[in-house]
Design brief:
The structure is a homodimer. Chain A is an alpha+beta fold. Chain A contains 6 helices and 15 strands. The radius of gyration of chain A is 20 Å and the shape is globular. The interface between A and B is large, with 96 and 96 residues. Strand 15 of chain A pairs parallel with strand 2 of chain B, so a sheet runs across the interface.
Chain lengths: 331, 331
């Protein structure tokens, strides 16, 4: 059983994989490890993944067989396990709990060669809708506190499979970074009686120098204090506290701007590795006034060095105004 | 002039390099870029660096000429500049200031082939003493709030020069991570009237399962909630709030355990890339009771993916007890 351990200074939780532990010789050097050969995520190989928890299929196709456009399956090597009771205990001054949670893989397309930036719009909307369905379902589990949806694209961004996929991790704790973001937006609201993200959207749409793209529901921007070159955020234009509580029509608009933004990044940066994360509240009712869900996309162009790790303080060699200009003009 | 910008939600500051900005084509792919050829840090090439701010030299050798065992020079491509007045201003809802600060390079040895793990003990002690000298000097500048000392070893860890060196960055703000660490240790002290690091040292020396090495002044451990495989902390055994205020004899003991620990990592992990950071208080007098300086060493063995970036929450595939066992037995 994996273990969750808490840092006694920061309050930061860490998952320690105690089962499939990696020895010194298991860490291959930084070179790109070969990807390719047999793909367990391709259509026809449904028996090589754990049974699906969600799928969008043709009428009449039976579960765990071909005929799907999207599948969600449990991760074969999960960081957390869904079975068991949550058990919290101390070890001297330290705190730990067993690794209860969910770890799922969203297989975004049956085609090995497709990516999120080549998929038709309907395919991208399916992906965003699948995230919503799984969030709603996982939130019903009373042991779990937060659902994380993220994508690693390209091996330099941590993807270990080439086939287009994203991941969902449901946790029995609220991660520190999430808590800090919620706290930050709450403090801003207490001070100004306005949502900080609504203020960002308003100022960016007025200044325009950091706007990359927009549609009737969303805007994508290079944020003012970008940590990384070409960091990009996608925000709903109107106040939307939680990802899974949006009106159904918004998922299509979100798919449109995500697809558009990823294509611009692909064109300007020559198909870069990237990570994106959906930032949404763990307690949507409670955070309704001051939190505003959004997507953060981080192309992986530079190596993060000691300075950044030690301080949470970043040196970004590309001003966001310049990044936005390149991306605005792309296409 | 570089610019410091503050994220309005997290309160996190970012340095935006506005002068030597990197365009899309400047981001080389992830492959290891060739290192080699002419080295500006080697003995004999003193005229290829800015004039030294500190050096340890043979008697009679003149500044900026051969005959040194260690030099500290300003970074030729600094992230921050020391000249000018600190100027804080708003831009709508955003906050920024000009990039005042210092960025220096510690050239740890005149020999291109030496590294911190091959240098004789006296050489390592010189490096640690140089850190202290520069910290004491930079703290005199009233515009600056925090001095960061760190080392990137190996190109995968962000080093752009092969010649053994570390870096010093003095900032006009206290970075969020540093502030959170100080706050965390303060909260622990308010609750228990004990320093959390003293408690960690005490428990680790009793349990021993995560101890890697020790001498009369220091202990190196694999921390309980390690974020990364083979993450290693070096802590003073007795309460020491600040790096630069230690008694002189402790720098020799710190050099001994740092050298010993780096050699173990080198042997077990086949000369891995790594980062280390000296964690010390920005306001040593104020934080005297509850803060305890230490070094955090992070071998760069795995790729940090979207999950980690988005959450500050890590999945570590090697339990620290196993890492410590490998490192304890090395040599």
């Amino acid at each position: 059983m994996p273990e969750l351990r808490k840092d006694p200074i920061y309050g930061r939780w860490v998952i320690i994989s105690t089962e499939r532990s990696r020895r010194p010789s298991d860490f291959a050097p930084e070179e790109r490890r070969p990807i390719g050969g047999f793909c367990p995520l391709c259509e026809g190989n449904e028996d090589r993944t754990p049974p699906e928890v969600l799928a969008f299929r043709d009428n009449g196709a039976s579960p765990n067989s071909p005929g799907w456009s999207l599948r969600v399956v449990p991760n074969k090597f999960p960081a957390l396990r869904i079975e068991g009771e949550l058990d919290r205990e101390g070890e001297g001054i330290y705190d730990k709990m067993n690794g209860i949670g969910a770890h799922e893989v969203v297989i975004e397309t049956p085609q090995h060669s497709e990516t999120l930036s080549t998929l038709p719009l309907k395919g991208v909307e399916n992906v965003l809708w699948a995230y919503r369905e799984r969030m709603v379902d996982l939130r019903r589990d009373q042991r779990l506190r937060h659902v994380l949806v993220f994508k690693n694209y390209g091996s330099a961004a941590g993807a270990s499979l080439e086939h287009s996929h994203s991941q969902i991790i449901a946790l029995p704790i609220v991660p520190t970074r999430v808590r800090e973001e919620i706290e930050g937006s709450k403090n801003y609201f207490l001070y100004k009686d306005r949502c900080v993200y609504c203020d960002i959207v308003r100022q960016e749409l007025r200044q325009r120098s950091r706007v990359i793209a927009e549609n009737s529901g969303f805007v994508s921007i290079a944020p003012f204090a970008s940590r990384f070159p070409f960091e990009t955020w996608i925000l709903p234009k109107i106040h939307q506290p939680s990802y899974e509580q949006m009106e159904a029509t918004f998922y299509g608009l979100a798919a449109e701007i995500l697809s558009d933004t990823l294509r611009r990044l692909k064109q300007v940066l020559d198909d870069p590795p990237y990570n994106y994360i959906i930032h949404t509240s763990s307690y949507p009712e409670q955070d309704r006034d001051y939190y505003h869900w959004h997507i953060e996309i981080m192309p992986k162009l530079t190596k993060v060095a000691g300075f950044e790790w030690g301080t949470g303080f970043y040196i970004n060699p590309t001003p966001p105004e310049e990044a936005a200009e390149y991306l605005r003009e792309a296409r």
